[in-house]
Amino acid sequence: MKTIRTFFAVLLFGSLLAGCAAASSESPATPFAESMKGYELYSWQDGNTWKFSLITGTNREKSLDEIKSADVVLSGVEALEAALQQMPAGQYITWSSRATLSFPPEDIRDQVEQACKDQGLILNVAS
User: Is 97 inside any structural domain?
Assistant: First the structure.
């Protein structure tokens, strides 16, 4: 009887380990998953650098602290383009501005619009 219990305990433990191994061998998730409400893009100039925040869309207005939080800020258009390349195609992005935030010059806006188009993202600029 003790042998049977040991056998089942080892079998259960082995099954748990196999399940964990299968889960960890899957491809890693992309930093930007599909979002039912799309993404929100904000921009502002800091010295000579344009900064951007790309945040998961929600039904509520984001605070400036959330928008300018260090973990979501992208410095420069190249960093934004790299982030856009990691987003799944078909996602909606709403680019907004408000107090202390602004849109960059037209050449940078064109560059961002082209990056979105190349990635299959749907960009809406809310002016």
Answer: yes
